[in-house]
Amino acid sequence: MKKLVLPFFVLTLVLSCTREKNQTLFEKVEAEESGIDFRNQLDYTEELNPYTYRNFFNGGGVALGDINNDGLLDIFFSGNMVENKLYLNKGNWQFKDITRESGTGGSKFWATGATFVDINADGWLDLYVCISGPPSDEPGRKNQLFINQKDGTFKESAEQFGLDFKGLAVHAAFFDYDKDGDLDCYLLTNSFRGVGIGQDIVENQREIPSADNAGNKLLRNDDGKFVDVTSQAGIYNSDIGFGLGITLSDYNQDSWPDIFVSNDFFEKDYLYLNNQDGTFSEQSEDYFESLSMGSMGADASDLNNDGLPEIMVTEMLPATLPRRKTKATYESWDKYSLNTSKGYYHQYPRNVLQRNLGNGQFLEIGRLAGVSATEWSWGTLIFDTNNDGLNDIFVSNGIYKDLLDRDYLNYMANEARIRSMIQNDEDVITSLIDVMPSKPVVNALFKNEGAFQFENISESAGLQEESFSNGSAYGDLDNDGDLDLVVNNVNMPAFVYRNNTDTTANRSLQIELQANSNQNTKAIGTFVQAWANDQHYSAYNFPSRGFQSSVDPKIHLGVGSLNTLDSIRITWPNGSKTTLENIRTNQLLTLIQPEKPQQTLEIIKTTQQTLIQASNRLQYKHEENLFVDFDRERLLLEMFQNEGPALAISDINGDGINDMFIGGSKDIAGTLFLSKNGELKPVKSAALEADRISEDVSAVFFDADGDGDQDLYVSSGGRAFSRSSSALMDRLYINDGKGQLIKSQSALPFTNYYSNSTVSAGDFDNDGDTDLFIGERFDAFTYGESGRAFIFQNDGTGEFTDVTDKVAPELMEIGMVTSSSWVDIDGDGDLDLVISGDWMALQLFENNNGRLQKQEAFPNLNGWWHTLHLSDVDNDGDLDIIAGNHGENTFLKPGTRMYVSDFDQNGTKEQIYCEKIDGKYYPIVDKDELIKQIPSLKKQLVYFEDYANKSIDELFSPEVLSKARVFEMNERRSGIFYNQKGQFNFKPLPKEAQYSPIYAVHSEDLNGDGFQDLILGGNQYLVKPQFGRYDALKGLILFGSQTGFSSDKLEFLNIDGQIRHIKKTTIEGKEKYLFVINNGPLLTYEKKD
Questions:
Q1: What single DSSP character describes residue 16?
Q2: Band of pLDDT at residue 337, cut at 50, 70 and 90
Q3: Which residues contact 815 (CB under 8 A, 6 or more apart)?
Q4: CA distances for 361 relative to 173, 237, 355, 1031, angstroms
Q5: Whole-number Å distance between alpha carbons of 50 and 563
Q6: What DSSP character marks residue 994?
Q7: Spatial distance between the Cα atoms of 841 and 827, rounded to a whole number of angstroms
Q8: What value does the mean pLDDT take over residues 317-341?
Q9: Which range is least confidently modeled, 25-34, 423-432, 749-758, 833-842?
Q10: Are residues 1036 and 993 in contact, defined by beta-carbon separation less than 8 angstroms?
């Protein structure tokens, strides 16, 4: 090879691949060709099995590294009940088993995580192997450190270095956390403690160190000896640390390495941010909104080429609905609430993908990305499989014996059967395991399509073989410029996959990092960035990744068809930087860390903020009532009692300054803020206090009685009342002219009590006074019952008449209304009516001489529309409609149906949600939950397998189904209905606006470019754990342009909570933006000067 020595780096050229490629991206290299025949065979006995050792089927890891410095990656497999294997790469896909002569077999001991690391800084990779397995007093049952003797042999020296720990070690990651130039170690362990023994959910357990010092450890390297500094560094060492993944990166972009730990079972994951003083702060709850529950392996890398590392964490949720019905279990709302109240945070049974926004916030968007459910998934790797410049996601799947199969747990492993087996002197445990289901599954490969959209290409990419896969690692085994893949399997041969990317078309840059002047010879912790035109690529050098595995420490950047990169910048662990320009791709570049950091002026890029949080003297916090919708209607997927509070803004005391009303929840009165001496202050209102029992869901200021001041109408709603409760009566408060509200003595023309959602004021009959539209949200007891709406005609004095049946009879059964607006859509001088609701399309009622007639103006897009906002966003002179919908970050797909009926004829109606599969509709609710609600189904649903494949028309007779109301959702995206001469065309908002349900919209030209911009807010937290809360929309600004809205022009606001209103008003002489949050504080923002 030809080398060109330049200051601080060495340039190494490699030949590009000319071998003809197969069609599939990956091609399995059989053992007959490669010589790799490792098989992690696990044979259970009565004494040793998954009942006596919980992690029996967790499997082993893979480590890749060049142990003899010949430029070829070698492969190490860790074995559990079999010896480890080390294979020397001879080139041309020929590997030699050198386990015995190298001394790395480690027989007798249960090996788990494996990491190649140059621990003694001699330029040769050593090998650290974690030891787990059933506890024993054997003297050799300790973690092992194999020191490379530079002659193909290794010497076990863990004790000499202080790394001979004994316990349930899972994996180790070596990195320089204190930046002193040597490698420290984070040792990940899995607790000996039993799970499900009734003492799990106890507060502050993680603060109590393990009595046996068996928990996780941070080990500082002091002159080649590793010293336990766990407690003093702020790392948890408790008995509830069920660690399965250790993932390093710089998560807050301060150039210091941070630590992410994924924990199995009930304990939450940890995010340790480096304090730069030898200590860490655990800040998972500050950075993440949702976590995986049974977290396993994880990885961190940049998925959208913005230079920020995302985090992907795997769990056990099956990919398909039928398998979920037989394998997955879900916590009840009460259990989930207990967990969160005891400090175990928001954990859900699914994979999570945390998008890094770079400002101290991550957004969990795994459901939108389509990567939330991938079977029993042990770990993930994020790397560019096809060199197209976008990192893809690989997930290793499979459990050899499915311990969580629900039919097995119910009918084979139940207490009565076990007692019978014991009485018959059977081999109880092995007999139980023999009948435990065993089904291999396909590993998952998700191709990155951009914008966090992924396509599962496992089968077309050559990864179609079903397996029980665990640890995995990637690296360029044949030096052809693409990344190959190695996978460790249980009870079947390991997989070795050759990558067949055409590297003449999709190119790459590989960088070997060296730090010859200190103890971190592979420069672990280095951050590499590259630029070409408007493209940005980046990677961190942290080899320990995925599950129990480590990858080649070389940096690999796929760059698509680029022949040259404009520049690359290397940020080294010692703080120095190396910048190179005009770098040719398809080469291996060797760079050496400068001995001393250069004194260079760092250009700090600051993100321009449009809105900043303002000082807030209002000091208001909304408190939601504690009613649980699921206690009344067990089969609902989410609650609906948290859609308030109401907000209304107007000048009601005549001083020319806007005042404000914010509604209260059940048993908490609404609050009236009046301006006084330029300040908004809350004032006591006896009228509002007298109606504190009601839930204030919508409100409007308008002149009801024609006296020239602003009166207040408040709609009552919610779910916490009976149908006959007077708390569901709307209220009209008359203004005395000075801002004091007095409840009107005139009865509103309701003939019953209704749980309403929206009120809009407008003079629909053009008689000079203001009339009202009121929409019913739902029946307080039965979600899905037909709702109605009202037109209240004002006689000019504040006396109202219900004229709905005369002027708009179609409103009598309009549906479950959520939002409304009076607006002159057709420009004829009178007010038309626009309505949104659940399970329905938007509705337009055109005003023809005081009669409101339904028009077919909107496409038939049935959604869960939460809010409407009108604005001329395309500058064509008419009003368009921004409509907030459910979003795409959800398990609920277009085609989802809801059947509502009294299915068992017991006088109570139920809602059964169904997913559409191959033209049939299958219930998505858990079987046990369904049977609790409809016990008559128990006889036909004895087994979970019975339920898994039964559509709703197989569960119920045609006669029963004929009586059901059927709702179907075919559009879940929020978007804009563009007004085209009275007909509306729908265009969805950018993907970032689909991260969560939208409940609030504000529009104006924020940046003065002549185009309307949008401020969006939403979220819905009260969702069953099976589906997970919707929390990834923390305030978003979309900037308008000539072509509309795009992901290229937006700004995240990082506002916590469930935003229900965004309104602009003037407070103390300055324009403010109010964010009204359900069960949270009122926040004020202002434009940045």
A1: P
A2: very high
A3: 786, 787, 837, 838, 839, 840
A4: 25, 26, 8, 12
A5: 52
A6: G
A7: 23
A8: 97
A9: 423-432
A10: yes
